[in-house]
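We both want to read discrete structure tokens more fluently, so let's practise on a single case. Would you write everything just below, so we can both look at the same thing?
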Amino acid sequence: MPGPTIDLQVYPNEAALLEGLRAGEPDACTCMVKRFAPLIYTKALRMLGDADEAENILQQTFIKACDKFTSFEERSGLGTWLYRIATNEALMQLRRREYTDTIETLDEAIQPADLPQNLQAWPIDPAGAVLNDELRSQLEQALAALPESLRIVFRLRELDGLSTEEAAAALGLGESAVKVRLHRARLRLRELLADYMAGEGTNV
């Protein structure tokens, strides 16, 4: 049986929604969920690669947000605050996983197998370029092929914009380990995307 319909226009903008949340209005949390759920679910799914786990992160994020809204200091937007909660929840989930290639046992030295075999020049940088839909799709496919320990470092540093220090703190690693893993991830992605990027070069 479908749940009640909530009119999002009750809170026409974020300022009105924040006022409702501060006042503890019954529909405010529901409106917050409906407004930001797609963003949070997409974030969790990209970090975890598992729909069920992403759904769990979505639920946990909004449970914590509604329960602890008084801790929101409004130094950033509401979406940014929720994004940070979701990121922390997803990182905790990643720590709970048992990997074959675990964060604790991964050898941090660059291995010969990590070096790309296809070293032709690319016309654009997939980490720094403004991603169109096609390039984003190609990058997501390539990221999915990386070991978890490399994929999460690349996401935090290159896609989420965390500094090396912030990523190291979030993952419980040393900064040197983050730098090595980021370098590994870039090398792997360079090889995985080489054919696509070479094709792009013929179109520019």
In short: The CA atoms of residues 154 and 182 lie 6 Å apart. The two ends are 53 Å apart (CA to CA). Residues 98-124 have pLDDT under 50 and may be disordered. The chain has two domains: 8-96, 112-201.
